[in-house]
Amino acid sequence: MPSIEVHTDHCKGCGLCVDICPANVIEFSKEINNLGYHPAQYKGEGCTGCTLCFYTCPEPDAIVVHRKD
Ligand code: SF4
Ligand code: SF4
User: Fold this and answer.
1) Does the beta carbon of 15 lie inside 6 Å of ligand 2?
2) Domain boundaries, the chain
3) Is 3.40.50.620 the CATH classification of the domain at 3-66?
4) pLDDT reported for residue 69
């Protein structure tokens, strides 16, 4: 199954990925990262691998999408 990985300490908590995900599988963590933001986190299931979150995120190293070929 596709999934995403959020590199927490690169996330600035802008919420663009949360808003754009058509499957609604990204949320904000309750934790604070080393930049002082609530980072995005994967809810754990339901990702379709569409990559919209990756292409929307302004931080180049914050989101990785894992897809099967
Ligand atoms: S790849 Fe698509 S479905 Fe998966 S978390 Fe990102 S926006 Fe949502
Ligand atoms: S779009 Fe990127 S920087 Fe913004 S909340 Fe999502 S992972 Fe964090």
Assistant:
1) yes
2) 3-66
3) no
4) 58
